[in-house]
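Researcher: Go.
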Amino acid sequence: METMPSSSENSGGTRRRGRGMSLASSGLVTALLLAVVLAVLGVVWKAHMRGKIHKMTTPEILPETTLAARPGGQDVVRMIRSEHAEGMAPQFSSALLLPGAGMAVLQANLNVPGRGQIPVLVGTDEASLPGQIDPLTFAPRPGLQDSPISVRVQVPNGPNWGTATELVKNRPAQTATSDFLPDGSTSTATFAAAPPAGLDGHVPAPSGIETKIVTTITGRGLDLNISATNRNDTPRAVVIEWQANFAAPQSGLSGMNVLAPETVLPSATAASRALPLGEADLHAVFTGLKYSYLSQGPEMQLRNQADGYTLRLTAMTPSIRSMRMDAAKDGKSVAIVFSTTGSGSAEQSRTVVAPHETLQWRVRVDAPSDAGYRAPTQ
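Model: Structure:
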C-alpha cells in the first residue's frame, strides 16, 4: 500500500531545493569558478611570456657528451683542506691525484696571501684530460702532463740482475681510497704484487712487490709516502722515484732560484748553494745527502720571488739517496727528482729489499713561514 508524502515533508523538500536554487542563482559559485579559471590563465600566460611553456613542452637537447676524465678507468681524486683564515704565510689548499695513472700528482694549489690560489705544478688542465686518454683502453697518452711516480723492480739472475720492470707509472691502482682529516685529507692507492688484467685485457706478470702510495695534504704541507714490500722468498732490487715538475712564474725562470741541499762532502755556505735559474740550461745531481738527527732530512728550496713564496722539499727517509734537477734556460718548469739511486756504479746505488721486507720512501713539500715575507703587489 503506497503512502503519499505528508504536507510537512513536501514543504521541507521545497525549502531545501529553494536554498540550493538561491545559491546558484546568486552567482556566488559562478564567480568563484570564474576567478579560479582566470587565475590559472594568468599563471599560464605569465609562464608563456617567460618562455617556460616552451621549455616544459620541448625536450632539451644536451650538447654532445665527452669522454669522462678517468685516466686508467679511475676517477680523479680531489684532495682539499677546509677553509682556514688567511695567514701570513702560504699554505697548500688542494691537490689532484690520478690513481689510474700511477697515483701521479696532477696539480697542487698553494694559497698565497695577496695572490690567492696558485698552481705550483705543471699539469694538464682537468677539463683537457679527456683528450689525453685513449678512448678504448683509458690509458694515458704521452701528452699527459703530471708529476709521475715510478717504482721499478729487478729480479736476480744468477750473479746479476735482470732488466728493470715498471710497476706503477701510468698503471691503474688496484685499490684507491680517500678520507678527510681534521686539517686536510689523505688518499691511499695500492698496486698488487700480482696485478689483475688491465682494461685492455692484458695481465701483467706478477712482480712480487706490493706498493702502497699515501698522499696527504695538511697544514704541514703535501706529504708523499711510498712503501714497497717484497712478497717473494728471494730478494728484489727496487728503485723509487718521484719527478715533481714545478711551474715557473709567468715572467719565466728568471724569477726563481734554487737552494741546493747539504751533502756530506765539505761544501760551502748556503749563499754559495743558491743557484739562479733562467740564465743557462741547468742540470745538477746531488748525492751524498746529509741526514742528521737535528733535521727532518736534507732539503732543497725552490724560491719563487715573482709570486712571493718558497717551497721546501725535504727527503724524510734515508732511502732517498739523490735529488736531481733539470731546468732549461727558456723552460716553463723545474723538474726535481727524488730517487733511491745514488752515485757510483749501478751496484752501489741499487737498493736490495730482502724477502718480506719493506722499503720506505717519504718526501714533504711545504711553504715555510718567512718573517720577512711581504705579499707581492698586484
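Model: Confidence is low (pLDDT under 50) at residues 1-25, 51-67, 371-378.
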